[in-house]
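Replication protein
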Amino acid sequence: MLYEKQNRAKAEVRDWIAGLDWGQTIVLTLTFPPSIAATREGVEEQAAYFWNVVDKRIFGNRATYPKKAQRCNRLNVIEPGRYRDNYHCHSLVEVPMSSSAKPKYQTVDDMIDLLESVWKKKMSFNLDKVQCSMDVEEVGDFDYWNRYITKTITDKNTDAICHRTTWLEGLVA
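Structure:
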């Protein structure tokens, strides 16, 4: 019974994600140094900084408008490693196609280049040490990635979705 309930919650989240209009989509995994990855809060804080830099590059000052901020649509999931430690972040990211996004970031390749550049050049822990990994690619099989990033979600653990760094403005179900 518990197993069925866990699967039902996971299925509902997956159906909700699949029902959104993602357009061109990128998936990425951010892996942090041990001092940050030790806690979910550390990963959340660094992910928030990463996405703020990305959004400002794409939308300029519009990314910080108090009432109507513009950001790239994304779903961020923070999950622990195999031994319930070493947190990392998975993201589904829509390539921004709105008229307020800078045109040079409106293709998959240019968006991937931007994400890689921000990760390597703006994240302080990557500047003078061995760089932490960021895996990024265009989503080919959306169902596979939807299942992958929601693997830790159950009826008792919906906290995997990071509400602080997820932005789903304009994605219509």
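DSSP finds five helices and four strands in the chain.
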